[in-house]
Amino acid sequence: MKLIRKNDIDIILQNTKNTPRMAVCTYFTIDKPEKFAGIYTLFSKLLLKGTKTRSAQELANLIETNGIEVSIKCKQDYIKVSTLFLNEDFDLALDILSDILENSTFENFEKEVFKLKGEIVSDLDSPQIKASDAFVERVYKDHYYGNSLTKTLNDVDKIQKQDILDTLKQIMNSKKVISIAGDFSDEDKLTDYFAQKFHFMKNSSNSNGNDEISDLLTIPSMGNTDEILKIVKNDAKQAQIFKGVIVDTQFCEDYPKIVVMNNILGSSGLSSRLFVELRDKQGLAYTVRSALEPLKHSSLFYFYIGTEPKNILKSLEGFKIEAKKMADDFVSDIELTGAKENILGRLEYFSQTNMQLASIAGYDYIMGLGLNYEERYKEKLNAVSKEDVRQAAQKYLLNPAVVSILAPEEYLKNI
Question: Is the model's pLDDT at 377 over the cut of 80?
Answer without folding.
Answer: yes
